[in-house]
């Protein structure tokens, strides 16, 4: 029965939830009640559609793995006490590990002092984080606008580019097919996947998409825009496409894009929401290619896996369009003291623990192992690829990738597909993952692949998989 008409008591609902927040240990009865309650809440009040997509929920939604706490930097526990090795990293937010004690300590100190700011006096941490990012980011990037998510950081970048370029008569944007920049109307206009875009058409005018990694097509599109007077305000790219399936461009692509931007007076916006903060083995992925953007988008891991925060960092030349009227683009919560405390402690962790370097070392080991598996199971896998600890295995069919993620989940290793490319399963653990844990991932992955391979050669399944591979 749908409960949409049942009268709920809001006080009871809130108090019931607070009761769980204040609990430490759970009895068997608690676990059953909590799991049922959470499933009901998702089905009736969040979105029943989610339950269909979670590999942690069995067919028919009769059991769901409900997460309870982080048990270590790279592991989490569900209400039943099952521990999962996190190779998903919350889609790239746990670079410094789960519940990083130094990030928590900074946030707790600030929580005790002043969680949110007055909006009128100058909030110290916002200033200090902006200065820290100016020092951390490449090239002349200097001024920061803070928000609460990756989408908002992209939205701010697009608006900044428009404000800078409209007096110069340039208003169009070029993005890449397969790109993911978020799902607000502005960010979605840059995102390159039809399934996410189609229901919301028409999106912002003046956005063109070209294949990622192909400089000739990009150049032609820029020239085409010039011919029709739709001069390009900015080119927006992820240095490595994350949700597109972890797609690395040719080595000379980004430098050529930078040169093209300079040639025609377009801005280069790099979206490092997922690739930034050490993920690919350098602090920012653009550093692998020696390229400096005019505007850099950050979020996800910037908050240390503790607080949400987004940052749009720009050169003084570009950002100065907001000097005269800083209220042109604002947000109440962006850059709040708790988020800034988390981000400052995160930068400190990344630098003092050399986490980008660790990502490079463990990433190279893991990737070598995954590529070995790809050569052992060519009937299942097209390739394994990545940089640092942003990696993906591309399967021959969506369904095989999904079955692999599910088989790993059953072995208590958490991975997931990428949003724009369902055939590719991402491996994106915290940068704190140990060598032993990498070895375990490879061992469990091999067993999962063997199981899938055996299932495929089973006569009943054979037809289904063969049909799918067309
Ligand atoms: C490159 C990139 N940009 C933007 C976003 C959107 O970030 P958020 O989900 O925090 O709004 C994502 C999210 O996956 C992303 O990977």
Main features:
470 residues, alpha/beta, Aspartate Aminotransferase, domain 2, Aspartate Aminotransferase, domain 1, four-stranded mixed β-sheet, 17 helices, 44% helix, binds pyridoxal-5'-phosphate, pyridoxal phosphate binding, putrescine--2-oxoglutarate transaminase activity, aminotransferase, transferase
Concise overview:
This protein is α/β, with parallel strands linked by helices. The chain is built from 17 helices and 15 strands.
**Outline, from the CA principal axes?**
globular
Secondary-structure class: alpha/beta
Number of helices: 17
Order of strands in the sheet with the most strands? 4-10-9-8-7-5-6
Question: Can you name the CATH architecture of the largest domain?
Answer: 3-Layer(aba) Sandwich
How many strand elements?
15
**How much helicity do the residues have?**
40-55%
Describe the protein's architecture and organization.
By secondary structure, the protein is α/β, with parallel strands linked by helices. The protein folds into two domains: 101-353, Type I PLP-dependent aspartate aminotransferase-like (Major domain) (Aspartate Aminotransferase, domain 2, 3-Layer(aba) Sandwich); 354-469, Aspartate Aminotransferase, domain 1 (Alpha-Beta Complex). It is built from 17 helices and 15 strands. The strands form three sheets. A seven-stranded mixed β-sheet has the order 4-10-9-8-7-5-6, sandwiched between helices. It has a four-stranded mixed β-sheet with strand order 1-2-3-13. It has a four-stranded antiparallel β-sheet with strand order 11-12-15-14, covered by helices on one side. Helix 14 packs parallel to helix 16 (435-457). It binds pyridoxal-5'-phosphate (PLP). The site of pyridoxal-5'-phosphate (PLP) has 16 residues, from helix 7. Pfam families: Aminotran_3. Belongs to the class-III pyridoxal-phosphate-dependent aminotransferase family. InterPro entries: Aminotrans_3, Aminotrans_3_PPA_site, Class-III_PLP-dep_AT, Putrescine_aminotransferase, PyrdxlP-dep_Trfase, PyrdxlP-dep_Trfase_major, PyrdxlP-dep_Trfase_small. Keywords: Aminotransferase, Coiled coil, Pyridoxal phosphate, Transferase.
